[in-house]
Amino acid sequence: xxxxxxxxxxxxxxxxxxxxxxxxxxxxxxxxxxxxxxxxxxxxxxxxxxxxxxxxxxxxxxxxxxxxxxxxxxxxxxxxxxxxxxxxxxxxxxxxxxxxxxxxxxxxxxxxxxxxxxxxxxxxxxxxxxxxxxxxxxxxxxxxxxxxxxxxxxxxxxxxxxxxxxxxxxxxxxxxxxxxxxxxxxxxxxxxxxxxxxxxxxxxxxxxxxxxxxxxxxxxxxxxxxxxxxxxxxxxxxxxxxxxxxxxxxxxxxxxxxxxxxxxxxxxxxxxxxxxxxxxxxxxxxxxxxxxxxxxxxxxxxxxxxxxxxxxxxxxxxxxxxxxxxxxxxxxxxxxxxxxxxxxxxxxxxxxxxxxxxxxxxxxxxxxxxxxxxxxxxxxxxxxxxxxxxxxxxxxxxxxxxxxxxxxxxxxxxxxxxxxxxxxxxxxxxxxxxxxxxxxxxxxxxxxxxxxxxxxxxxxxx
Length: 462
Fold this sequence. Notes:
This protein has 14 helices and 15 strands. It is α/β, with parallel strands linked by helices. Strands 1-3-2-6-8-7-14-15-11-9-10 form an 11-stranded mixed sheet, with helices on both faces. The protein has a two-stranded antiparallel sheet with strand order 4-5. A two-stranded antiparallel sheet has the order 12-13. The longest helix has 24 residues, at 299-322.
């Protein structure tokens, strides 16, 4: 019989196989992870809601089935609390929705359930996903498992901590400007932000919007590939979704990697640049590494404009009617787009197109583009925003995300892996970027880096 501790140390892929072989029941897996949550979450605050009763009912159904119902049969997971779960409170991190219980699952949740996954609960997020620290008026701050005084990152910090601390082997996240990648870097786990459209989102109000995506966090590449495989696919109500992965041939021979610490424009801390340089030296053992970057001039201003317009459109009515109940961070985000003109928006879209084409041009001579997964290291939870990097003031509170939001801007898929680190060093991740719809290529390369160069998760000292 596997001990509770070893159950919680298994990856999602390993746990699914163990359950399928009958070595562990779904009930045992659920109880082990619920016990881990009960032990660690009072300190770490990774979950807004834990659905122990619902998870136990689902586990009984899995154990009663004559055969596994899907690739994630009996595997406990967490869902970010920005995403609807039928019959389970979904607060969006806001007191305005503290009692909100959706009638239907978001499509990504429905696909995870069909694959046999068991939802243990909803992971913490800043209000509506806006915030550098994963906290809100309901729960938080979500504390970094490597140093609880430090932030877990926003806005999928709850999912990153739940995975890093073994509360679940796999967690869902969403990523607009870096919201799975920054927490993954801070908490020493892996993440995938797939090509927009790979996971359909048919209830998205702006159907052609390709800035935000669903994603996943896990302790290994195999789990990310498994999660994407069960959630990918098109939907007729999502005009940018696709039914297949597309043409993604494997890399022939030694990979060619372009590396950039900052895309030529992003503010990045000196300490991060040093750790990134060390990671690039390690990469050179397995690939041909060349410093290079697409032309990203104007990218920061472009993303600011597009993001502000989208947020003002989505939440402007809340600001007008419920301002007193919103956090200052949310208010700032909504107001940033209040005075934008149509010309501002279209000028930003024109520049976005040029940046996309520059990325495309770079990938005619390289297989991957690698950059840091965060511009800074985790800071104390009491500091709500990053206002300066290396004593240089930032123009806006979102500029520290430029190293990740530039990739969001162009919609290329990106895998985040923990870089090798010393015993006393905080986790640090790299972004591995591939052309659109080339997730299989990313997973194959990431698996090699995990196995051969130690770009892999290391358990926090809990």
